[in-house]
Each structure stands twice: as C-alpha cells, then as structure tokens.
Amino acid sequence: MSSSSLSPFSSRTSSHPLVPYGWDADWEAEFAPYAAQGLVPGRVVRVDRGQCDVITADGTVRADTEFVTPRDPLKVVCTGDWVAVDADGTDPRYVQVYLPRRTSFVRSTSSKRSEGQILAANVDHSIIAVSLAAELDLARIERFLALGWESGGQPVVVLTKADLVPDAVTLGHLVEDVETAAPGVQVLPVSSTSGDGVDVLAAVVSGGTSVLLGQSGAGKSTLANALAGADVMEVQAIRDVDGKGRHTTTTRNLVLLPGGGVLIDTPGLRGVGLWDAESGVGQVFSEIEELSARCRFHDCAHDAEPGCAVLAAVEDGTLPERRLDSYRKLIRENQRIVAKTDARARAELRRQWRLRGAEGRAAMEAKRGRVR
User: Fold this and answer.
1) Quick check: helix, strand or coil at residue 294?
2) Which H/E stretch holds residue 118?
3) Looking at the predicted structure, is the pLDDT value of residue 125 above 50?
4) Which tens digit of pLDDT belongs to each residue from 306-347?
5) How far, in whole angstroms, is CA 292 from its chain's centroid?
6) What is the pLDDT of residues 58-82, one digit of tens each?
7) How far is C-alpha 184 from the chain's CA centre?
8) Which of 233, 257, 253, 256 is nearest to 245 (CA)?
C-alpha cells in the first residue's frame, strides 16, 4: 500500500509537511472521514479554468474542480480552501470536497444580480494595501475594512510606497488620518523599495494566513515579493500620469512566506461592494455604534431626531461629519444588497417548489397511466 493511501497524520501533526501552510489538529480531525476513504489532504494555492493547484504532502498537484462547482458562487472551491483530492496514481485527479471554512473574504460582484464572490478562504489577516502615491481615499479604506472585519480575520492597513513621503511629520499625519478611519486596526507605513516596515509586517502575518487586497497600482505584488523574499509575483511599472497601474496579478495565488505564515495575493479590485457586512460596518464605525446607544430613540436614524447623540457629536466636533456620511452610505448599500439577496433566495425557493410540483404531477400522471 502506498504512503498516499494512509493518513499522513497518524503520528504527530506538528511534524507534517503541510503544517507551514496552516494544517493543524482541528483540520486533521475534520479530514479524518476522507482519510478513511483513501483521499489526500491539501490546500488550494491557485484556481483557474476549472482546474486548481493543490499543495499536498507530496508536493503540488493539478486537480479538476468539477465536483466542487455548485450553482452558488460562494460555494465554489477557492484559494485557501483545504480539500480532499484523489490519491496519487489516479488520472485525472479530482477535488472531491473542501473542508468547512473557518473564515472567508467575500465581496459583492459588480453585476446587477448582486452576487457574492469569494476571494479567499480560511484567512487570519486581511492586509489592505493603500498607496501613498495618490491622495488617501478614507471612504474606500473604510469599505475594505468593513469586508475585512466581516470575513472573520483581523484587518491590517498597509500604507505602501512610504518612501514617496520622506518627511516623517507628513508621514505621521497620514498614518493618523488613516487611524481615525480604522479604529482597532494596525496601520503600517511600508516601503518595499527600501524595506522599511517590511519586517514589522512580516512579524504581524507570520502566525497564519493573510489575504492581500487593494486597488490596482497599490503595490500589492511588490509587497508580496518583499514579504516572500523573492520575485514570486510579476510587477509592472505604474503610469506616471496618474499613479495607477495595470492588473499585474490575474489570479489568486497562495505563497509560503519564509518568516512563517502564508500569503494570498489577489488581483487589483476596481469595485469593492459590500456583501451582508452589517457587523463589519459596525466595527469600522465603532464610535458611532457606541454613540447610538445613547440616542433618545432606539431606532434613531441620526438624521434630524431630537436627542440624537450621534448628531450632537458631529455638532460639537468630536465626530467628523465625513465619518457619519460614510457610515450612512455603507449602511444603505448593505441594506440594498441584503434585500436583493433575500429576494433572490425567495425566487429560488419558489422555483424549487414549482419544480417539485411539476415532478409530483408527472409522477401522479404516470401512476394513473399504470392503473388504467
């Protein structure tokens, strides 16, 4: 019997080759039923065109995703998933199932159908890359943070290209501006060119899986290379005219970091739509949530109601009006997405009932035909 047909965790889990990729005793327990079937555990490091690359104890294998491609786009196999694949010697090899996700980073697609898109699975940190080569867009940062908190991972904001701001006082003010938009989140200025701050970020992400997010031109691929200590991602120069870059990364790739942990790089995101991120929005705007508890009315909309603690904070200057405007915008957007999602779910339920009804009528007609 080959070693691939045996459970690779029959001895101590800590000594297994997949441990650097995040495998632990809990994943081992989840996988036990599939190990009994002779399947092999692995982590998805890349997905494209119905195929995926999976890192296993014996190295990287190419596997077909036909059996894990349901109609629900949130349930397709994704980079970062832990999966059960066919044993070595099977041709072709298939991903048979993926293990239940601990966390997932999901956004709304730009389509009018408002479908969700999963960008990464089983993440511990969401690294939001923001370029200092352009003017800070705090509202966009807040949007990324809402999704980051909702994913279940710890967000980290990385201000890339910090070498373009050589004045320490100016850089400090920029960090403070972002910190006001990111309560409870670490904000790190980093220069992939000079290496400043890279070691600090490497230490932050060394304990788990991180997903790297940001707009195209934010320096994500350069940052990924700096963390990996090698040119693992292709890098293209940004345009001098507007400081923007082209999409260098076209797929989501999982890379092992030399200092510990793994990194999932993602393509530059033009649109960052919320996807059922109510709690995430609440965490980004925690000071507004706390003020809301002091409003006279429990359902206060913070518009013109008497006794509104939020509006009072805006009037006395303790709460920036920009923060309240951003909060309102994200709350409204999230409510629209949830409403559309609920409507689609109801429509799908009606479709299934109609289908079952048709099948039932067909069965009755067949039965009547046999009786005659």
Assistant:
1) coil
2) strand 116-121
3) yes
4) 999 999 999 999 999 999 999 999 988 888 777 765 445 455
5) 29
6) 999 999 999 888 877 788 999 999 9
7) 19
8) 233
Find out whether 104 and 151 touch, Cβ atoms under 8 Å: yes
Q: Could you give the CA distance from residue 80 to residue 94 in angstroms, rounded to a whole number?
A: 17
> Is residue 180 a contact partner of residue 234, using CB atoms and an 8 Å limit?
no
What pLDDT is recorded for position 168?
A: 95
For helices 138-151 and 321-371, what crossing angle results, to 10°?
40
140 CB-near residues (< 8 Å, 6+ apart): 215, 272
> Which of 312, 287, 329 has the alpha carbon at shortest distance from 182?
287
Q: From CA 327, how far away is CA 164, in angstroms rounded?
A: 31
Structure tokens at 350: 């009606």
Provide the Cα torsion 80, 28, 262, 127; round to 10°: 60
Tokens 């993440």 sit on residue: 123
What pTM, to 2 d.p., does this model score? Answer: 0.79
